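Translate sequence into C-alpha coordinates.
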Amino acid sequence: MSQYKINEVFESIQGEGSFTGVPSIFVRLQGCPVGCPWCDTKHTWTLDSQLERSGPVVMAEQGESSHWFNHTVEQLLALFTEQNYRAKHVVITGGEPCMYDLIPLSSRLISLGYSVQIETSGTYEVLTHENTWVTVSPKVNMPGGRKVLASAMQRANEIKHPIAMEKHIEELDQTLILLEDKPQPVIYLQPISQQKRATELAIKVCIERNWRLSLQTHKFIGIE
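Result follows.
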Protein backbone atom coordinates (compact mmCIF):
# COMPACT_ATOMS: atom_id res chain seq x y z
CA MET A 1 0.00 0.00 0.00
CA SER A 2 1.49 3.32 -1.08
CA GLN A 3 2.27 5.87 1.60
CA TYR A 4 3.36 9.44 1.09
CA LYS A 5 5.43 11.64 3.37
CA ILE A 6 3.42 14.84 3.63
CA ASN A 7 4.65 18.20 4.89
CA GLU A 8 1.32 20.01 4.65
CA VAL A 9 -2.12 19.95 3.08
CA PHE A 10 -4.15 23.11 2.57
CA GLU A 11 -6.79 24.67 0.37
CA SER A 12 -6.08 27.91 -1.47
CA ILE A 13 -5.95 29.47 -4.94
CA GLN A 14 -3.32 28.37 -7.46
CA GLY A 15 -1.18 31.44 -8.07
CA GLU A 16 1.08 30.35 -10.93
CA GLY A 17 1.01 29.05 -14.50
CA SER A 18 -1.96 27.81 -16.50
CA PHE A 19 -4.18 27.21 -13.48
CA THR A 20 -3.74 30.67 -11.96
CA GLY A 21 -6.91 31.57 -10.08
CA VAL A 22 -8.20 28.01 -9.74
CA PRO A 23 -9.30 26.87 -6.24
CA SER A 24 -6.93 24.05 -5.33
CA ILE A 25 -6.02 21.57 -2.65
CA PHE A 26 -2.25 21.60 -2.22
CA VAL A 27 -0.51 18.42 -1.08
CA ARG A 28 3.09 19.26 -0.26
CA LEU A 29 5.38 16.21 -0.06
CA GLN A 30 8.54 16.10 2.01
CA GLY A 31 12.02 15.70 0.55
CA CYS A 32 14.09 17.41 -2.13
CA PRO A 33 17.81 17.09 -3.00
CA VAL A 34 17.86 19.69 -5.78
CA GLY A 35 18.96 22.60 -3.60
CA CYS A 36 17.66 25.71 -5.42
CA PRO A 37 19.20 28.76 -3.66
CA TRP A 38 16.02 30.85 -4.01
CA CYS A 39 13.65 28.06 -2.88
CA ASP A 40 10.84 29.34 -0.66
CA THR A 41 10.10 25.89 0.80
CA LYS A 42 13.52 24.86 2.11
CA HIS A 43 11.79 23.41 5.17
CA THR A 44 10.63 20.52 2.93
CA TRP A 45 14.12 19.43 1.87
CA THR A 46 15.05 17.10 4.74
CA LEU A 47 13.71 13.56 4.92
CA ASP A 48 14.56 12.63 8.50
CA SER A 49 12.61 9.97 10.40
CA GLN A 50 13.08 12.01 13.57
CA LEU A 51 10.91 14.72 12.04
CA GLU A 52 7.91 12.42 11.58
CA ARG A 53 4.80 13.38 13.54
CA SER A 54 1.14 12.39 13.47
CA GLY A 55 -1.16 13.91 10.87
CA PRO A 56 -3.16 16.00 13.38
CA VAL A 57 0.02 17.44 14.92
CA VAL A 58 1.44 18.52 11.55
CA MET A 59 -1.91 19.87 10.33
CA ALA A 60 -2.22 21.97 13.49
CA GLU A 61 1.21 23.58 13.10
CA GLN A 62 1.36 27.21 12.06
CA GLY A 63 3.98 28.49 9.62
CA GLU A 64 6.84 26.62 8.00
CA SER A 65 7.85 23.32 9.59
CA SER A 66 10.11 20.42 8.63
CA HIS A 67 7.76 17.95 10.30
CA TRP A 68 5.93 15.46 8.11
CA PHE A 69 3.41 12.64 8.41
CA ASN A 70 2.76 9.40 6.55
CA HIS A 71 -0.61 8.88 4.87
CA THR A 72 -2.02 6.35 2.44
CA VAL A 73 -4.15 7.53 -0.46
CA GLU A 74 -7.35 6.68 1.42
CA GLN A 75 -6.15 8.44 4.58
CA LEU A 76 -5.40 11.54 2.52
CA LEU A 77 -8.86 11.45 0.96
CA ALA A 78 -10.37 11.13 4.44
CA LEU A 79 -8.36 14.19 5.46
CA PHE A 80 -9.89 16.16 2.56
CA THR A 81 -13.32 15.28 3.96
CA GLU A 82 -12.36 16.11 7.56
CA GLN A 83 -11.11 19.52 6.46
CA ASN A 84 -14.26 20.12 4.39
CA TYR A 85 -12.25 21.01 1.30
CA ARG A 86 -14.39 22.07 -1.68
CA ALA A 87 -11.81 22.49 -4.45
CA LYS A 88 -11.74 19.87 -7.19
CA HIS A 89 -8.20 20.59 -8.42
CA VAL A 90 -5.32 18.97 -6.53
CA VAL A 91 -1.75 20.28 -6.80
CA ILE A 92 0.94 17.78 -5.74
CA THR A 93 4.03 19.79 -4.95
CA GLY A 94 7.01 19.76 -2.63
CA GLY A 95 9.73 19.38 -2.00
CA GLU A 96 10.17 17.26 -5.11
CA PRO A 97 6.99 15.19 -5.55
CA CYS A 98 8.43 13.00 -8.29
CA MET A 99 10.69 11.34 -5.74
CA TYR A 100 7.50 9.31 -5.19
CA ASP A 101 5.46 7.02 -7.42
CA LEU A 102 2.40 9.21 -7.88
CA ILE A 103 0.41 6.75 -9.98
CA PRO A 104 -1.69 5.38 -7.07
CA LEU A 105 -2.50 8.85 -5.71
CA SER A 106 -3.17 10.58 -9.02
CA SER A 107 -5.21 7.67 -10.39
CA ARG A 108 -7.46 7.57 -7.33
CA LEU A 109 -8.00 11.32 -7.38
CA ILE A 110 -8.85 11.35 -11.08
CA SER A 111 -11.26 8.42 -10.63
CA LEU A 112 -13.12 10.57 -8.07
CA GLY A 113 -13.45 13.52 -10.44
CA TYR A 114 -10.50 15.65 -9.32
CA SER A 115 -8.12 17.24 -11.78
CA VAL A 116 -4.50 16.69 -10.76
CA GLN A 117 -1.39 18.80 -11.30
CA ILE A 118 2.21 18.00 -10.37
CA GLU A 119 4.88 20.67 -9.89
CA THR A 120 8.33 19.14 -10.45
CA SER A 121 11.94 20.14 -11.08
CA GLY A 122 12.22 17.67 -13.96
CA THR A 123 15.09 15.82 -12.27
CA TYR A 124 13.10 12.64 -11.55
CA GLU A 125 11.03 10.32 -13.72
CA VAL A 126 7.40 11.45 -13.72
CA LEU A 127 5.29 8.51 -12.56
CA THR A 128 1.66 9.59 -12.67
CA HIS A 129 -1.73 9.01 -14.33
CA GLU A 130 -1.77 9.90 -18.02
CA ASN A 131 -4.35 12.66 -17.44
CA THR A 132 -2.24 14.47 -14.85
CA TRP A 133 -1.19 18.00 -15.78
CA VAL A 134 2.58 18.13 -15.35
CA THR A 135 4.28 21.45 -14.64
CA VAL A 136 8.05 21.21 -15.07
CA SER A 137 10.20 24.00 -13.66
CA PRO A 138 13.53 22.72 -15.00
CA LYS A 139 16.18 23.23 -12.35
CA VAL A 140 19.48 23.59 -14.21
CA ASN A 141 22.93 23.60 -12.56
CA MET A 142 21.58 23.52 -9.03
CA PRO A 143 23.80 22.71 -6.01
CA GLY A 144 22.31 19.23 -5.69
CA GLY A 145 23.90 18.29 -9.02
CA ARG A 146 20.84 16.53 -10.46
CA LYS A 147 20.27 16.70 -14.22
CA VAL A 148 17.01 17.61 -15.90
CA LEU A 149 15.67 14.47 -17.61
CA ALA A 150 14.55 14.37 -21.23
CA SER A 151 11.64 12.13 -20.21
CA ALA A 152 10.39 14.71 -17.71
CA MET A 153 10.63 17.54 -20.23
CA GLN A 154 8.80 15.49 -22.83
CA ARG A 155 6.01 14.73 -20.34
CA ALA A 156 5.48 18.40 -19.47
CA ASN A 157 2.17 20.06 -20.23
CA GLU A 158 3.72 23.38 -19.28
CA ILE A 159 7.23 24.58 -18.55
CA LYS A 160 7.49 27.25 -15.86
CA HIS A 161 11.00 28.62 -15.65
CA PRO A 162 12.18 30.89 -12.82
CA ILE A 163 14.51 33.59 -14.14
CA ALA A 164 16.56 36.50 -12.78
CA MET A 165 19.12 37.12 -15.53
CA GLU A 166 20.00 36.37 -19.16
CA LYS A 167 21.89 33.17 -18.29
CA HIS A 168 18.63 31.63 -17.08
CA ILE A 169 17.14 32.14 -20.55
CA GLU A 170 20.21 30.51 -22.07
CA GLU A 171 19.86 27.56 -19.68
CA LEU A 172 16.23 27.17 -20.69
CA ASP A 173 17.15 27.19 -24.37
CA GLN A 174 19.63 24.37 -23.74
CA THR A 175 17.04 22.43 -21.75
CA LEU A 176 14.40 22.79 -24.48
CA ILE A 177 16.70 20.74 -26.74
CA LEU A 178 15.65 17.75 -24.61
CA LEU A 179 12.18 17.97 -26.17
CA GLU A 180 13.71 16.62 -29.38
CA ASP A 181 10.86 16.31 -31.89
CA LYS A 182 8.08 16.60 -29.31
CA PRO A 183 5.67 19.57 -29.59
CA GLN A 184 6.75 22.46 -27.38
CA PRO A 185 4.48 22.78 -24.35
CA VAL A 186 3.21 26.10 -23.00
CA ILE A 187 6.19 28.06 -21.64
CA TYR A 188 5.97 30.49 -18.73
CA LEU A 189 8.74 32.71 -17.43
CA GLN A 190 8.50 33.47 -13.72
CA PRO A 191 10.59 36.30 -12.25
CA ILE A 192 12.42 35.12 -9.14
CA SER A 193 11.13 36.88 -6.02
CA GLN A 194 9.28 39.41 -8.23
CA GLN A 195 12.55 41.35 -8.64
CA LYS A 196 12.15 44.44 -10.85
CA ARG A 197 15.01 43.55 -13.23
CA ALA A 198 13.87 39.92 -13.46
CA THR A 199 10.30 40.99 -14.19
CA GLU A 200 11.40 43.40 -16.92
CA LEU A 201 13.54 40.67 -18.51
CA ALA A 202 10.70 38.16 -18.36
CA ILE A 203 8.27 40.58 -20.02
CA LYS A 204 10.79 41.39 -22.76
CA VAL A 205 11.53 37.73 -23.58
CA CYS A 206 7.87 36.69 -23.42
CA ILE A 207 6.99 39.35 -25.99
CA GLU A 208 9.94 38.39 -28.23
CA ARG A 209 9.15 34.67 -28.18
CA ASN A 210 5.40 34.65 -27.64
CA TRP A 211 5.82 32.90 -24.29
CA ARG A 212 3.75 33.66 -21.19
CA LEU A 213 4.43 35.50 -17.95
CA SER A 214 3.76 33.76 -14.64
CA LEU A 215 3.60 35.89 -11.50
CA GLN A 216 3.23 34.44 -8.03
CA THR A 217 -0.15 36.11 -7.59
CA HIS A 218 -0.79 34.38 -4.26
CA LYS A 219 2.11 36.37 -2.81
CA PHE A 220 0.69 39.65 -4.10
CA ILE A 221 -2.62 39.03 -2.34
CA GLY A 222 -1.06 37.57 0.80
CA ILE A 223 -2.26 33.96 0.76
CA GLU A 224 -0.38 30.65 0.91
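Note: The chain has a mean pLDDT of 94.
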